[in-house]
Amino acid sequence: MKPLYTAKATTQGGRSGHVKSDDNVIDMQLSVPSDMGGEGGAHTNPEQLFAAGYSACFGSALDLVISKEKVNVESTAITSEVTIGKGDDNGFELVVKMIGEIKGVEKEKAKELMEKAHQVCPYSKATRGNIDVTLDVK
Fold first, then answer.
1. Is 7 in contact with 26 (CB distance < 8 Å)?
2. pLDDT value, residue 11
3. Closest CA to 63 of 53, 50, 52, 77
4. Cα 6 to the chain's mean position, in Å?
5. 112 CB contacts (<8 Å, ≥6 apart)?
6. What is the percent of the chain where pLDDT is above 70?
7. What local confidence, expressed as pLDDT, does residue 39 receive?
8. For the chain, the helix, strand and coil percentages under 3-state DSSP, each to the nearest 5
9. How much of the chain exceeds pLDDT 90, in percent?
10. What is the distance between the alpha carbons of residues 130 and 50, in angstroms, rounded to a whole number?
11. Spatial contact of 76 and 103, defined as CB atoms under 8 Å apart
């Protein structure tokens, strides 16, 4: 791999701590979601941050596929649902559902574009074989 960019972030205090990127763009308090027994509230959590990153990256991969295939679309949007739960070994696991909204094409074409984006997206490549990721279209 030829490096293009390296993101850096440091968290102190784990899920109930504080995360800050080296350029100070991210500088926020974390909290455990109330669904997991935490205080929840107005703070983010690792699953939200992962969902945000994955949906942005997947959206760019989708745009690349659409551009290469010269498909005319009105607009695209990607929603990433990241779920954390207990695995069979009593440890924690993640599952992801990527939901694409691709206006201007038939549902079957949208599914095809999503599948191709899933092969290109770096987050998809990184999670392949490690996290169950399902694709859906609106």
1. no
2. 98
3. 77
4. 18
5. none
6. 100
7. 87
8. 35, 30, 35
9. 94
10. 15
11. yes
Residue 21, both tokens: 């990127």
Count how many Cα atoms sit within 13 Å of the Cα of residue 71 in the half-sphere of its side chain.
Answer: 21
Burial class (CB in 10 A: 0-12, 13-18, 19+), 32: middle
Sign of the C-alpha dihedral, residues 135, 118, 122, 66? negative
Q: How far apart, in Å, do the first and last CA atoms of the chain sit?
A: 35
Reduced to 3 states, what is the DSSP secondary structure of residue 108? Answer: helix
pLDDT in tens, 59-111: 999 999 999 999 999 999 999 999 999 988 989 999 999 999 999 999 999 99
State both tokens at 103.
Answer: 């206006």
How long, in residues, is the chain?
138
CA dihedral 84→86→92→98, nearest 10 degrees, is: -30
**In Å, what is the CA distance from 32 to each residue of 15, 36, 40, 41, 91?**
6, 7, 6, 9, 17
What amino acid is encoded at 56 in this protein? A
What is the β-pairing status of strands 92-103 and 75-86? antiparallel
**CB-CB neighbours of 113 under 10 Å:** 23
